[in-house]
């Protein structure tokens, strides 16, 4: 059995400036996006992307993920807390970013980027989809370092079960690390490989929807569910799991249509 290291939330300080781990993970995520984006543009030059376009789309994406992610957390998962503590809505350095809210924010940002730069929505999302999972992995590492979003208690012996002392003394799944491996590394390998060759328009985006929705749905069985505005829903599934269901369904429909050319 392991015990969470209880990291100091501040990674390092330079004079009066303190850099938090959570913010550092975002910086790593954005850096990986640019590095991988340039590699992707070089291996698929026919897609017509360059370094300047990557910088621009990243800016749109950053705004989308921060605004959407925070609003999703506030509206979908912890509205009661933020009604009582409205000043905390802006404290994103403490964590608390909803993937599904951030996802909707990014979709809106990509639509706006495409509209202003003469690219179709699916052209944009197909290109960026393989670049997203490493950022998700960095975000989940931030969750682990912050000691938030801990896993469910383990009823059997599990060598890597972890105690989060500020929660209780029960051994729990380190579900944040499961998500690093699943939604981060595994999903990246799938999408990076799939997008290496020409695919029908929308196919890569569809694979992202199916892959993320499925992996997140499974990971939720090991994670203590977020309270959500509805708590635990039908069939004992969490709010996040029910939000993943339409992702997978839409992804499957879009993938089928893309292969049919409709």
UniProtKB/TrEMBL annotation:
EC code(s) of this entry? 2.5.1.145
Q: Which residues bind a 1,2-diacyl-sn-glycero-3-phospho-(1'-sn-glycerol)?
A: 140
GO biological process terms on file? lipoprotein biosynthetic process
Q: One GO MF term, please? A: phosphatidylglycerol-prolipoprotein diacylglyceryl transferase activity
How is this protein annotated for GO cellular component?
Answer: plasma membrane
Please give the start and end residues of each transmembrane region: 20-37, 57-77, 97-114, 121-139, 176-194, 201-217, 229-255
Return the InterPro entries for the record. Answer: Lgt (IPR001640)
Top-level taxon of the source organism: Bacteria
Function, as annotated: Catalyzes the transfer of the diacylglyceryl group from phosphatidylglycerol to the sulfhydryl group of the N-terminal cysteine of a prolipoprotein, the first step in the formation of mature lipoproteins.
Q: Which family does it belong to?
A: Belongs to the Lgt family.
- Return the PANTHER family for the record: PHOSPHATIDYLGLYCEROL--PROLIPOPROTEIN DIACYLGLYCERYL TRANSFERASE, PROLIPOPROTEIN DIACYLGLYCERYL TRANSFERASE
UniProt-recorded name of the protein: Phosphatidylglycerol--prolipoprotein diacylglyceryl transferase
Protein's organism: Thauera terpenica 58Eu
Gene name, Swiss-Prot/TrEMBL: lgt
């Amino acid at each position: 059995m392991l015990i969470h290291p209880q990291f100091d939330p501040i990674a390092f300080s330079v004079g009066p400036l303190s850099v938090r781990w959570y913010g550092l993970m975002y910086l790593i995520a954005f850096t990986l996006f640019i590095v991988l984006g340039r590699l992707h543009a070089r291996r698929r030059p026919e897609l017509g992307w360059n370094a300047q376009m990557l910088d621009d789309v990243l800016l749109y994406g950053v705004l989308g993920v921060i605004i959407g992610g925070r609003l999703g957390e506030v509206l979908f998962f912890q509205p009661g807390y933020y009604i009582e503590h409205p000043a905390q809505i802006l404290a994103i350095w403490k964590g608390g970013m909803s993937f599904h809210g951030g996802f909707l924010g990014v979709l809106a940002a990509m639509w706006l980027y495409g509209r202003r730069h003469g690219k179709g929505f699916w052209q944009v999302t197909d290109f960026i989809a393989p670049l997203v999972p490493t950022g998700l992995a960095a975000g989940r590492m931030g969750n682990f370092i912050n000691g938030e979003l801990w896993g469910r208690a383990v009823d059997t012996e599990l060598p890597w079960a972890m105690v989060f002392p500020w929660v209780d003394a029960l051994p729990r799944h380190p579900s944040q690390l499961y998500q690093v491996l699943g939604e981060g590394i595994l999903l990246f390998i799938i999408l990076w490989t799939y997008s290496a060759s020409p695919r029908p328009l929308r196919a890569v985006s569809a694979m992202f929807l199916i892959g993320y929705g499925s992996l997140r749905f499974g990971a939720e069985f090991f994670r203590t569910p977020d309270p959500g505005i509805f708590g635990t829903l039908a069939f004992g599934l969490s709010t996040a799991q029910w939000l993943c269901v339409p992702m997978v369904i839409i992804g499957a429909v879009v993938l089928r249509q893309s292969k049919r050319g409709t």
